[in-house]
């Protein structure tokens, strides 16, 4: 019995180590390696690294340049993305996924990629629109309320896309779970701002890049890591 118990413990420890090895860090805490601003080859100077986090500093832009949405070099299909975000007072940003990195065809990342909303719910006017609040699948699905921390505090987020199911988790609580690509998904898009005709490819491709949004307000992200599922 002791040998069996020891073997089980060994197998469990191996499984835990193996699971940890599946995570890939997307931010080394020192550089913007692995990222670029949408439409550019490198990250804009307004995206700054400090204390292990990446912060968008709008004051660092010059004549509207130096920022832009920050996009991963690599593309992902089924994945588990985990990170933390901290928004400034009255701030707005977002975490987009399945972004098609083709600026010649699409003017913005949100023309193709759905967005997990990052927002100061108490200060930004967008919070008055129920589907635009922090933790929502922006303009598509209203998430469970009451799990977001206020501006200036870190919020943990998990975005899990696996075999056609999308799950959004805020501070360890599932706030949204839905299916991708079915009739209900298509109807959500049709009834949203993304169904108005000028974004015909929005939410149709379930493989693409991760993007952190430059919405003109200071925002920080840290502990960004991903698993391919």
* Rg estimate, integer Å: 18 Å
Instruction: Write down the overall geometry.
Output: globular
CATH superfamily: Exo-inulinase, domain 1
Instruction: Describe the largest sheet.
Output: 8 strands, antiparallel
- Overall pLDDT metric: 93
Describe it for me?
The protein has 229 residues and is mainly β. The chain has one domain (25-228): Jelly Rolls. Helices cover 12% and strands 34% of the residues. The strands form 2 sheets. Strands 1, 3, 4, 6, 9, 10, 11 and 13 form an 8-stranded antiparallel β-sheet that branches. A hairpin with a 2-residue loop joins β3 (47-50) and β4. It is globular.
Descriptive tags:
5-stranded antiparallel beta sheet; 229 residues; 2 helices; globular; 13 strands; single chain; 8-stranded antiparallel beta sheet; Jelly Rolls; 34% strand; mainly beta
């Amino acid at each position: 019995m002791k040998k069996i118990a020891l073997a089980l413990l060994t197998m469990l420890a191996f499984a835990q180590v193996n699971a940890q090895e599946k995570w890939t860090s997307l931010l080394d805490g020192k550089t913007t390696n692995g990222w670029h601003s949408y439409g550019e080859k490198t990250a804009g100077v307004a995206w700054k690294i400090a204390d292990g986090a990446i912060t968008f500093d709008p004051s660092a832009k010059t004549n509207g340049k130096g920022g832009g949405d920050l996009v991963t070099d690599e593309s992902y299909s089924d994945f588990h993305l985990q990170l933390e975000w901290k928004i400034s007072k009255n701030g707005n940003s977002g975490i987009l996924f399945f972004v098609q990195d083709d600026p010649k065809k699409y003017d913005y990342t949100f023309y193709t990629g759905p967005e997990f909303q990052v927002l100061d719910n108490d200060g930004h006017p967008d919070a008055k629109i129920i589907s635009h609040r922090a933790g929502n699948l922006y303009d598509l699905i209203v998430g469970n309320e009451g799990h977001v921390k206020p501006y200036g505090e870190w919020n943990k987020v998990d975005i899990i896309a696996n075999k056609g199911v999308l799950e959004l988790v805020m501070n360890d609580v599932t706030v949204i779970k839905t299916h991708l690509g079915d009739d209900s998904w298509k109807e959500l898009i049709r009834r949203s701002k993304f169904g108005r005709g000028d974004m015909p490819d929005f939410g149709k491709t379930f493989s693409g890049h991760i993007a952190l949004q430059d919405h003109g307000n200071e925002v920080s992200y840290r502990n960004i890591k991903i698993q391919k599922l």
